[in-house]
Design goal:
The protein has 162 residues and is an alpha/beta fold. The protein has one domain: Alpha-Beta Barrel (TIM Barrel). It is built from 4 helices and 7 strands; from the N terminus they run E-E-E-H-E-H-E-H-E-E-H. The chain starts with a strand and ends in a 9-residue tail after the last helix. It binds iron/sulfur cluster. The site of iron/sulfur cluster has 13 residues, from loops.
Length: 162
């Protein structure tokens, strides 16, 4: 399956816990004021790449803790995102995913992907809530959600370092 990306960062230390392969997915309709990645907005921008190519690069690096789906809006290409996430989980690695949706407003189409996501950083970037002290997120409205615990407890459970 092909996926449209803005870029790849094979070893990122800032897009989640540990060493992560960050996939910057192309396309976002939100246009949040102060967005850090405006080049990722155009739906026809970036470049197409085969998901197999990304997975091969992930498999080659034994140092990785996992991958991070970011962008852009990963949910605009939810099937391709899930194809990658599913294989990454089967390798014993973790999957973090950013989205401009809040957890409560996630579309039904995101549910299969959520099965393979460990941590979801939700909500769009709100400039007046921007805080440079925040870890892994840009504004204080965004939450770092532990998806497994959230599903088990049927309430939002925030991620904590283990
Ligand atoms: S959701 Fe993310 S990528 Fe999209 S405009 Fe907002 S900050 Fe930028």
């Amino acid at each position: 399956m092909q996926i449209r990306i803005a870029g790849l960062v094979p070893e990122s230390f800032v897009d989640g816990d540990g060493i992560r392969f960050a996939i910057f997915m192309q396309g976002c309709r939100r246009n949040c004021a102060g967005c850090h990645n405006p080049e990722t907005h155009a739906l026809d921008g970036g470049r197409l790449i085969d998901t197999e190519e990304i997975l091969a690069a992930v498999k080659k690096n034994p140092l990785l803790d996992g991958i991070t789906l970011t962008g852009g809006e990963p949910l605009l290409q939810v099937d391709a995102a899930n194809e990658i996430a599913r294989v990454v989980k089967s390798l014993g690695l973790s999957v973090w995913c950013y989205t401009g949706y809040t957890f409560e407003e996630l579309p039904t189409s995101a549910q299969p992907l959520l099965e393979n996501v460990d941590v979801l950083i939700d909500g769009e970037f709100i400039e007046r809530l921007r805080d440079l002290e925040l870890q892994f997120r840009g504004s204080s409205n965004q939450r770092i959600i532990d998806i497994k615990k959230t599903r088990e407890q049927n309430r939002i459970v925030l991620w904590e370092v283990e």
